[in-house]
Amino acid sequence: MLDIKFIRENKEIVEIGAKKKGVKVDITHLIALDDERLKQLKEVEDLRAEVNKVSNQISRNQDAALKTQLIEEMRSVKDEIKKKEENLNTIMEAWRQIMLQVPNVPDMTVPEGKSEEDNKEILTWGEKTKFDFPSKDHIELMLKLQMVDFERGVKVHGFRGYFLQNDGAELSWAVWNYAREFFGAKNFIPFIAPAIVRKENLYGTGHLPSGAEDIYQTQDGDYLSGTAEIPMMGYHSNEIIPKEELPKRYLAFSPCYRREAGAHGKDTKGLIRMQEFFKLEQLILCEANHEESVKYHEEINKNYEEFLESLGIPYRRLEICTGDLKTAQVKSYDTEAWIPSQNQYRELSSASYYHDFQSRRFNIRYKSKEGPSLFVHSLNSTAVATPRILVAIVENFQQADGSVKIPEVLRKYMGGKEFIK
RNA sequence: GGAGGCGUCGCAUAGUUGGUCUAGUGCGCUCGUCUUGAAAACGAGUACGCCGCAAGGCGUCGUGAGUUCGAAUCUCACCGCCUCCGCCA
After folding, report:
1. What are residue A107's DSSP bridge partners?
2. Could you tell me where in chain A the CATH 1.10.287.40 domains are found?
3. What is the pLDDT at residue A243?
4. Between A366 and which of A36, A62, A241, A375 could a Cys-Cys bridge form, CB atoms 3.0 to 4.6 Å apart?
5. How far is Cα A230 from Cα A273, in angstroms, rounded to an integer?
6. Residue A72 to residues A69, A76, A160, A358, A373, Cα–Cα distance (Å)
7. Which whole number is the average pLDDT over A375-402?
8. What's chain A's average pLDDT?
């Protein structure tokens, strides 16, 4: 959520930002509503001040008749307050609704565009994998190598169900162990985060109110989070962090749950789009400073790219255009790996920064001895997610005989084995 | 799942027959006095948010509603913690 003061003082910037993101929101109306809110607030507070003053008099006064009279007077003032408060609440409700819809302003450097079609490729690494034999997709490869069982997955879980088994399970654990080693060297504090979270956390990150249909809910009104970003942002909610403790660098593992309600036709086969998967997330809270945000954003994105390079997976970096940015995001990169069977790059990672949009909702501040308390900046990026990354590994390293060559860095976690066959 | 107890401005506490609580006290911390320096002692300060140019005002005693002229104090719901029993990786 943006600061209402910022919105008032930068009306045009906010309007243009919303327009670029393709979000319809009436800022003029919001400001008018805010004027009304402030006016009503002042009136209610003035009346309260009067009640407080007179109540004080009542308690000190000995004259019973005067007391009764004052109490009578306050009774009517109280009715008036009640009426005005109801009015104020109505205004506040409308105000909140709109405030939740006002999107964060995209950075100047973000390319303009309407949808994901307009996302901009800004670099590629590695050669697109070519084969001198008829290549297979990961489904065929993994089924043949008995790494995965979709039939029983569907029998047990339903649509998009899967079991990883044998070397499918082993390769996953190898990826996890390697990721732990790789990102563990980058000065993060490791976490295992809860996936069942309270509703407030989803509002905090910006996954609610829009996007509700994509989130699982429990019968107790809690939600299953689709990324450790959600619990990790909630971790410091309503806290004031000493400035010298910044930046907070967290590396959090969690199971992730996404209904994929809006994607029924997409990636219906294979291991690309699962309702349950596992992810390690890089998350940083830093000082409220644009340059800091940019610096760490580049860093965590680079971390992921280097991770793919160390595995030898060809990728490209995509700069997300204004129309494809989420409500809370200022800027975002996707890292996409080359998927030979689809003859295209597919998203494996997403790195974004938010300025204080999320921390304002979560009320995460920091304070130095002299300065005032400010909202921290937040940013995050995927570190690794399974099983999706297995798709890239298996397809890019497949051999003519249908076996899969294990990336060198993973071999020590698979008993030194060179091939899955 | 059952029974009981408890949530006070960093920490520890006072305050629960509603009314100078404008939340007291101790510790810690900050500044000052004193001192060659430090300690001690003494003095002052020390939660947060919102409105306002300011003076000042409003709100928050886990959270939210309610009763009342007036709520830390009474009522209800929720959240959390503790103890005991039951169950359980």
Report:
1. none
2. 4-101
3. 84
4. A241
5. 20
6. 5, 7, 68, 47, 44
7. 96
8. 93
DSSP string, A313-349: --EEEEEPPGGGS-TT-SEEEEEEEEEGGGTEEEEEE
Strand B–CB A58 distance below 7 A:
yes
pTM exceeds 0.90 for this model = yes
Check if A378 is active-site. Answer: no
Domain A4-101 has CATH 2.60.120.460: no
Mean per-residue pLDDT for A227-240?
Answer: 91
How far is A192 from A252, CA to CA, in rounded Å? 5
The segment(s) of chain A belonging to CATH 3.30.930.10 are 116-420
A60 as an active site residue: the answer is: no
**What would the pLDDT profile of A175-233 be if each residue is shown by its tens digit?**
999 999 999 999 999 999 999 998 889 988 988 877 788 999 888 888 999 999 999 99
Average pLDDT over residues A8-23: 95
Nucleotides of B under 7 A from a protein CB: 19-20, 22, 48-52, 57-59, 69-70
Looking at A23-166, list the stretches that DSSP marks H as alpha helix, in order from N- to C-terminal side: 27-60, 64-101, 138-144, 150-156
Contacts of A410 (CB under 8 A, 6+ apart): A171, A174, A175, A178, A311
- Which helix (DSSP H) or strand (DSSP E) does residue A204 occupy? helix A199-205
Note if A258 is an active site residue.
yes
Q: Which two tokens stand for residue A287?
A: 């000082």
**Catalytic status, residue A350:** yes
Per-residue pLDDT at A370: 66
Q: What percentage of chain A exceeds 70 in pLDDT?
A: 99
DSSP state of A191: E
Q: Give residue for tokens 């995209």.
A: A106
User: Which distant-in-sequence residues (6+ apart) come within 8 Å of A377 by Cβ?
Assistant: A285, A286, A287, A288, A289, A292, A293, A353, A354, A355, A356, A359
The burial class, CB within 10 Å (0-12 / 13-18 / 19+), for A84 is middle
Q: Is the CB of A374 under 7 A from strand B?
A: no
Note the CA–C1' distance, A255 to B2, in angstroms. Answer: 33
Tokens 């860093």: give the residue. Answer: A299
CATH 3.30.930.10 applies to domain A116-420: yes
pLDDT band at A369, cuts 50/70/90? low
* Catalytic-role residue among A48, A50, A347, A403: A347
